[in-house]
Design brief:
The protein has 103 residues and is α+β, with helices and mostly antiparallel strands. It is built from 3 helices and 4 strands.
Length: 103
């Protein structure tokens, strides 16, 4: 990997506190869609490990499931990293957009 996920273009950032917020964020990402977009989505999660794992699982599986229900391509790449002292982050972007951006 020759880049850091924070360098990718982001269309919307979600600052989530719990699983309920994660479900709402997933619904919004699916509604906006990944198709024909050159930007990704960023999800910020609290650094509390238990909450972050639940949010991360909810987001990654929720996006895949939502795209499957809409019969859209589920070729989504994502990275999880330490965003700052208080947050972990997940960046999600379609693989086609990633290739088009030259990463």
């Amino acid at each position: 990997m020759d880049f850091h996920p924070k360098d990718l273009p982001i269309s919307k950032t979600y600052d989530l506190k719990d699983e309920k917020n994660a479900i709402e964020a997933v619904e919004d990402m699916i509604k906006i869609g990944f198709k024909k977009r050159k930007e990704g989505f960023k999800v910020l999660m609290p650094k509390e490990s238990k909450i972050a794992k639940r949010i991360g699982y909810t987001v990654t599986t929720g996006v895949t499931h939502g795209l499957r229900q809409k019969n859209e391509i589920r070729d989504i790449r994502y990275w999880t990293y330490h965003h700052d002292d208080e947050h972990y982050a997940i960046v999600l972007i379609s693989n086609a957009a990633l290739t088009e951006l030259g990463f």
